[in-house]
Amino acid sequence: MKILTVWFLMLFSMPLWAAAPFTPQQEVRIKELIRETLIANPDILEQSVNAWQQQANEAQGQQLSQFITANQQALYQDAGSPRLGTAKPQLTLVSFTDYNCPFCKTFDPLLEKLVKDYPQVAVVIKPLPFKGESSVTSARLALTLWQQHPEQFLAFHQRLMAKKGNLDANSIAAAQEKTGVTPVEPSAQSLDVLRTNLKLADQLGIQGTPATLIGDQLVSGAITYPQLEEIVKQQLAQAGK
Q: Coiled coil where (predicted)?
């Protein structure tokens, strides 16, 4: 087996310009050797796939880290983006969400619980209006409220997330009335924030909500609180090194 392995390494490391063409008999024998090797060692393919997957994950992680470094301001420090939790966090999550997304409606309360359970964690909320006109309208009103009356944002945000099914003009108006927030008109800045969010999401390859950036991991979809907590603990440990 060792001899065969060395033969393979010599064969595939040989420069193309230095390799003489194989005869038909040699090609047949090469195929036989490969087949015999795979039969005798069926785990070779699995090991190769695992190694490839690990390399792909490492490359993807490196690209994500580079993107985060290049977009620190837009991701974490944009004044137009609502945030929950401490002003000086050890770890900041970025939540891409949609007020019409049913999965976001179940996942968002977990983020609110997280910042209560972990005072050293903050969450930045990045609305992504993927689901129609009312997604855009509700997002712009929430962002405008954050910009003009930040202390009123959370109650309105929670009310929108609590609405079952898609929002419409009547349910958005009802949310404003029930929460007693100051009536606002969607600001120009709110539209700029949405454009930035959409650009960030496109560059991150986000195709649906919720999507949550947690340290150097991008988590797609809604996960359970124990799963969320475990990732946060890992990222806090890395941040503390």
A: none
Residue 198's pLDDT is 96
Query: Tens digits of per-residue pLDDT, 108-117?
Result: 999 999 999 9
Helix H, strand E, coil C: the string for the chain is: CHHHHHHHHHHHHCCHHHCCCCCHHHHHHHHHHHHHHHHHCCHHHHHHHHHHHHHHHHHHHHHHHHHHHHCHHHHHCCCCCCEEECCCCCEEEEEEECCCCHHHHHHHHHHHHHHHHCCCEEEEEEECCCCCHHHHHHHHHHHHHHHHCHHHHHHHHHHHHHCCCCCCHHHHHHHHHHHCCCCCCCCHHHHHHHHHHHHHHHHHCCCCCCEEEECCEEEECCCCHHHHHHHHHHHHHHHCC
Per-residue pLDDT for 11 more than 70?
no
Band of residue 57 on the pLDDT scale cut at 50, 70, 90: very low
Q: What is the mean pLDDT of residues 196-213?
A: 95
Q: Which two tokens stand for residue 237?
A: 């440990």
- pLDDT (tens digit per residue) in 217-226: 999 999 999 9
CA-wise closest residue to 163 among 84, 113, 99: 99
Q: How far is CA 107 from CA 102, 115, 162, in A?
A: 9, 13, 11
